[in-house]
Amino acid sequence: MLKIKHLLKTLFFTVYISCFSQPKPFKTAKILSNHIITQTGYCSDGTDREQNGIRRFHGPMEAKITSYNNYQYIAYYEANGDIVIARKKINAESGWEKSIIQGYQITSEDRHNKIALSISKGDGVIHIAFDHHNTPQFNYAHSKLNVATNPDNVIWDNSVFELQPNLGLRNDTGLVTYPTFFELNSTGNLIVYWRTGGSLGGEMNLANYSSTDHEWRFIGKISSQEGTYLGVNSSRGPYTAKFLDDKYGNLHISWVFRERGFAEQESKKGHYSEHGLYYAQSSDGGFTWRDNFGKVIANVKVNLVMGVDNMRQLPIEIPLDLDPRHTGLNSIIDPVTNNYITLLNHFKPNTKKKINFLYIRTPKGDWITQETNLPHQGTIKMVDDKMYVFSTAGICVSDRSTNFSEWKTIPFPIQLKKGNSNWDTSNLEKGLISMVIQYSPENYGEPSPIEIFNIKLLQ
Questions:
Q1: Each residue's pLDDT tens digit in the chain (459 positions)?
Q2: For residue 136, what are the CA distances in angstroms to 165, 218, 413?
Q3: Counting beta carbons within 10 angstroms of the beta carbon of residue 372, is it exposed (0 to 12), middle (13 to 18) or buried (19 or more)?
Q4: Contact predicate 44/443, CB 8 Å
Q5: Is the peptide bond before 277 cis (omega within 30 degrees of 0)?
Q6: Rounded to whole angstroms, how far apart are CA atoms 251 and 372?
Q7: Are the C-beta atoms of residues 280 and 299 closer than 8 Å to each other?
Q8: All residues at 6 or more sequence positions from 292 whose CB lies less than 8 Å from its CB, including other chains
Q9: Taking a C-beta distance cutoff of 8 angstroms, is the pair 271, 262 a contact?
């Protein structure tokens, strides 16, 4: 009897601790401060990609935000073509300092040409890429060493950044589109991804940055646009989620392909052009890639690249008729389980209802398909057992206890005007998030305000 009482007491204590030691979920959001950093952010007028007299890809170019060592950094285009990186202390009510990149102004009227911004935490260098869409040069600039490591000692003026075309590489970077930096948490280094070619005939390319050597190294092309899909010999372009490193230093990537052979039929009802879900991982920093089953599918040293012809067997098959869309495709590493999780929107099989799915890959290579009631996509972040998705439509949260299937929405504190937003979740563990939004203009090409919100999530 004493053993049973002791067992019950231990069980009760364990349950009590597990219930009450977990952080309480956030329920509301409060705006701590907001600042308009400029009234004249650059907006595309859509003339670069005009077709049959119709302007395309017009509107705000989207500012980027990140934070490190108690400073916020925002990169954006001014209406006069300047490329601006602004900073201030996170808790300061005012005091934005601005640095303008010398020797370059934006050349495009194409909304695709967005800014990329990141920090290599190993050496405190701030990196920025800008003005790309099938561009014959990699437009890139970086700060001096330790600018982000010791920000209080830095005079923030136009000398902070210097241009370094093509990342300082001698290699041909090709026609550059969508360059994006990814921070490698295991090393403090960076990976930069870009696509060469168009959406119907493009290929993945990589370079890595060493915070020890303070320079970029060309990895090269890792995918092919060529091959045969569903009996159609055509070309295709990849749309990727994030390149992420797990706690062991392995890189993971998932993507969908958009097929040229089916894209011309896309205007017809029931015809779609994207399919997936493709997945690969690398244990050597991106030079060699294996599929989910361990087969080597890319090796830059022998010019082996991955594509539909050597990736016939997929861990998760999402065909054209389910219309998996690259818009909102996103991914995250679960810090507790080391699972790789991809968020993707497509039709639920045998229905015409589109929902957001989570595709969860375990470290052993098993995959779990999780339907969700998540109402929208956005920026993903995990803290402990909670997963968050941030959007101006609302801040959504789910818990591991539901396997992230059930989502609740924390309403955004105010009704925002239409625009393009970017989120900084670096301080979410403290219940703090930041968002920068560039508002849509009233007319084609008119400048528009860029505003920053600092938000507190409350329990």
A1: 434 344 334 333 333 334 444 567 788 999 999 999 999 999 999 888 788 888 888 889 899 999 999 999 999 999 999 999 999 999 888 889 999 999 999 988 888 889 999 999 999 999 999 999 889 999 999 999 999 999 999 999 999 999 999 999 988 899 999 999 999 988 999 999 999 998 999 999 999 999 999 999 999 999 999 999 999 999 999 999 999 999 999 999 999 999 998 887 776 666 789 999 999 999 999 999 999 999 999 999 999 999 999 999 999 999 999 999 999 899 999 999 999 999 999 999 999 999 999 999 999 999 999 999 999 999 999 999 999 999 998 999 999 999 999 999 999 888 899 999 999 999 999 999 999 999 999 999 999 999 999 999 998
A2: 11, 16, 43
A3: buried
A4: no
A5: yes
A6: 26
A7: no
A8: 279, 280, 281, 314, 315, 361, 365, 367
A9: yes
Q: What angle do CA 440, 243, 168 make, to 5 degrees?
A: 85
CB 18 within 8 A of CB 11: no
Which has the closest alpha carbon to 344: 368, 363, 361, 328?
328
Token couple for 215: 């320079």
**How big is the CA angle at 430 (ends 144 and 190), to the nearest 5 degrees?**
35
DSSP line for 324-351: -EEEEEEEEE-TTT--EEEEEEEEPTTS
Which residues have CB under 8 Å from 198's CB, separation 6+? 134, 177, 237
Handedness of CA 70, 75, 79, 83 (dihedral sign): positive
Tokens 């869409």 map to which residue? 133
Alpha carbons 144 and 25: distance in angstroms, whole number = 40
Compute the distance between CA of residue 193 and CA of residue 118 in angstroms, rounded to an integer: 13
Retrieve residue 157's tokens: 């003026």
The two tokens of residue 180 are: 């994006």
Place of tokens 């005012």: 94
**How far is Cα 279 from Cα 365, in angstroms, rounded to an integer?**
11
* Residue 104: closest CA among 75, 136, 73, 82: 82
- Which amino acid, 325? R
